[in-house]
Amino acid sequence: MSTLIKNGIIVTADGEQKADLYMDGESIVAIGEGLSYEADEIIDAAGKYVLPGGVDQHVHFSFTYKGSKTRGFETSNAAAVGGTTTLIEFVNQEKDRGLVETIDDYRKTDAEGIAMVDYAFHSVMTDPREEVIEEIPKLAEAGYPTMKLFMAYKGQFFHADDDAILKALQKGKEAGVTVMVHAENADMIDVLTKQLIAEGKTGPYYHAVSRPPVVEAEATRRAIYLAELADAPLYVVHVTCKEALEEVKAAYQRGQKVFGETCAHYLVLDESNLAKPDFEGAKYVCSPALRTQEHRDALWEAVDRKWLNAISSDHCGFDYAEQKHMGFGEGKSFADIPNGAPSLQNRLNILWTFGVCEGKISRSRLVDLYATMPAKINGLEKKGQLAVGFDGDVIIFDPDYEGVISYETNLEGVDYSPFEGFPQKGRPETVFLRGQKIVEEGKYIGEKGQGRFIPGKAFGAAYQW
Ligand code: URP
Ligand code: ZN
Ligand code: ZN
After folding, report:
1. How many helices (H) and strands (E) does the chain have?
2. How far is the CA of 340 from the centre of ligand 1 (A)?
3. What are the DSSP E strand ranges found in 300-361?
4. Does the residue 416 lie in any domain?
5. What is the CATH classification number for the domain harbouring 376?
6. Quick one: which ligand is closest to 318's CA?
7. What is the pLDDT along the chain (465 residues), one digit of tens a residue?
8. Domain that holds residue 88
9. Are 322 and 67 contacting, i.e. CB atoms less than 8 angstroms apart?
10. Is residue 405 one of the residues assigned to a domain?
11. Site to substitute for ligand 1 among 237, 274, 316, most atoms within 8 A of C-beta
12. Ligand 1 binding pocket mutation candidate from 287, 324, 344 (most atoms within 8 A of CB)
């Protein structure tokens, strides 16, 4: 299959140019003005933007909270219609099992033959026994060169203490495995949660009260010091507040290899959503918690000025009718509500509508944040860029489309969207995955199982020094 896309505006992290793009087989073969190839299909993209397929490096298809699991890879076509052609899934190490074998098994049973976009994996270390620490280098050999530890969630099997984080950083550094942290102080949250529940403050809004910005800032700073001690790179997932952001920025500016991401929902939602009546606030329970306008403003500035390096979805497909209601009723509280919200499909739409169209970020900055840097950081060498030799993961983006976001028309398989009713300007009209068209006129036309595992290279390009 070969495709020639003519007359579009090609947008990369470095700039824009009106040019043609030719793909043959799975790869981009040429980009330039006036290309004339004999292609199987020629598309006129005049008036449209040509963007690289997105890389969403923070997805939870296998997350289980208090025994209840999210929707999985069978909903990955939602990524495709949203312009994400590669996603990276966090796989929690299973009890009494190794890091690599847990991912290998999950990959075979839950991803292969099901995934509709390409995919990679992050390990989540839950059981830091000596032999598990010793196993860390094997992650890099297996193509899983990134590992997260949860500083939050005291009492859950996946919570990690400083001992585990420091050892992971030290061993990871030897092997090229990048350590990531969910940075929130678990003890602070635990104390505040118990106090709030004792006072009868149990509704979804108190989720935010139980984990204010200082909780995130403290853990972020601590993780940065641990990384300094280990002289290892660190990636802080979902930075949500200005205090934590300042820690990441300061570390980065003094030359430490500290990278940070934020997520689409922290840029456009705030804690007032948690106060919605009739338990609707539960839809917005995610961790860290949604913040206020001043934090949103700080995050927009940070993504624009490269103090944060990526914007992910932190997609969590828990439904409202049953799963979010685990925190509803007699004896229940916000602490029983599964954390996370579905947002796989609308990451690019939100960033375009509220970022590019409102002048907060340029189109090139958008490309860097949602595709190029996530690919580099995670060692996905042929992803995230429109350049010769890269995978033919390409979006033809129609800036004139206007719509409204609704769970009823999306493919996430969840009974709500945190962005319900939001206006949408523009959309990925056509999407290619390794040269194959998988979205046409905004509709998914690919096949189940078309997605492929993409091994990551140890210490992605963003970490080379
Ligand atoms: O609330 C969230 N983000 N849930 C998913 C797990 C995590 O903490 O990333
Ligand atoms: Zn997290
Ligand atoms: Zn997450």
Report:
1. 13, 20
2. 5
3. 310-312, 315-316
4. no
5. 3.20.20.140
6. 1
7. 999 999 999 999 999 999 999 999 999 999 999 999 999 999 999 999 999 999 999 999 999 988 999 999 999 999 999 999 999 999 999 999 999 999 999 999 999 999 999 999 999 999 999 999 999 999 999 999 999 999 999 999 999 999 999 999 999 999 999 999 999 999 999 999 999 999 999 999 999 999 999 999 999 999 999 999 999 999 999 999 999 999 999 998 999 999 999 999 999 999 999 999 999 999 999 999 999 999 999 999 999 999 999 999 999 999 999 999 999 999 999 999 999 999 999 999 999 999 999 999 999 999 999 999 999 999 999 999 999 999 999 999 999 999 999 999 999 999 999 999 999 999 999 999 999 999 999 999 999 999 999 999 998 877 764
8. 53-381
9. no
10. no
11. 316
12. 287
- How far apart (Å, rounded) are the C-alpha atoms in residues 102 and 95? 9
Task: Domain count for the chain, please give it.
Answer: 1
Identify whether the C-beta of residue 98 lies closer than 8 Å to the C-beta of residue 431: no
> One-letter amino acid identity for 331?
G
Residue 287 CA: which ligand 1 atom is closest?
A: 1
Query: Is position 431 within any domain?
Result: no
In 3D space, the residue among 270, 281, 388 whose CA is nearest the CA of residue 23 turns out to be 388
> In the structure encoding, which two tokens stand for residue 380, read together?
């996905």
Residue 280 lies in a domain: yes
